[in-house]
Amino acid sequence: MQKTYSLELFPPRNDAMQETLREARPQLAQLKPAFFSVTFGAGGTTRDGTFETVAETMAETGIEAAPHISCIDSSRDGLRELLAKYRAHGIKRLVTLRGDVFEGQTAVGELHYANELVEFIRAETGDHFHLEVAAYPEHHPESASPQADLDAFERKVKAGANTAITQYFYNADAYFRFVDECVARGIDIPIVPGVMPITNYKQLTRFSEVCGAEIPAWISKRLAGFGDDLESLRAFGLDVVTDLCERLLDGGAPGIHFYTLNRAEPTLSLWDNLGLPKPA
Predict the structure, then answer these.
(1) How far apart are the C-alpha atoms of 33 and 188, rounded to whole Å?
(2) Looking at residue 256, what DSSP letter applies?
(3) Does the predicted TM-score (pTM) go above 0.90?
(4) Distance (Å, rounded) from C-alpha 180 to C-alpha 48?
(5) Are 259 and 168 in contact (CB under 8 A)?
(6) Following DSSP, what letter does each residue of 16-59 receive, concatenated?
């Protein structure tokens, strides 16, 4: 089976970030990914920018782009309007998520879970959209147990998801165990591992604390030991993530989803290290 490679972008929040994205995007587009995904900010802070980034990406690169869509703080009527807008602009792929719920938040919208959102989109639009959902090899930080986490993932698949993209991780065994447990339940959709290049230790630590991704102790200690030596840190990070990707692909992963953070160089270096195709 042919491997699928995709890249994630996020909507810029200011002029400087806009310039960074516009510089990185054409370089990343040269890799001819299967699609770009485009996130929205926590609590919808950049949700309006998601569509703008998707439209701009498709127009500039000619490559499919998939907006993240969340049911948090969304009504059914609002979702219908959004889906109609996406259809009218030729968008055919969505990354379907529950979205972030903040401490003390009581009103979370008319739909409460990602499987309900998948069901709603299928009921409203049939098979028009290819629906990606999230998977958590190291388990969702809000999940009561690994069993409950698998139950939630299975509900999303049964609701009509086509494929899944995982939260990033640095432990390949966690991914393979998760896939094995899904297969044992009869879940057969592709589960594409998400990979985060390592370029900034403090940033990676902050992200990981929020999303529940584990940084193995041996990696964390080596990264901390580099201090301000960013060149050595990034060289080590590139080696670690290259080895991770090679193991994933050799072990049967259906592809890789790269979390680019709107920067071209880390993903390009990783792409080159892996010897992935660079179409003319």
Answers:
(1) 23
(2) E
(3) yes
(4) 38
(5) yes
(6) HHHHHHHHHHHHHHTT--S-EEE---GGGTTHHHHHHHHHHHHH
> pLDDT tens digits for 63-78?
999 999 988 878 899 9
Spatial separation of the C-alpha atoms in residues 222 and 204, rounded to whole Å: 13
Q: Across the chain, what does the average pLDDT equal?
A: 92
- C-beta neighbour count of 99 within 10 angstroms: 21
Q: Which residues are catalytic?
A: 8
The first and second tokens of residue 76, run together, are 């059914």
**Cβ atoms 198, 223 nearer than 8 A:** yes
- Specify the 3-state DSSP secondary structure of 76: helix
Which residue's structure tokens are 């979702």?
79
Helices (H) and strands (E) in the chain, counts: 10, 8
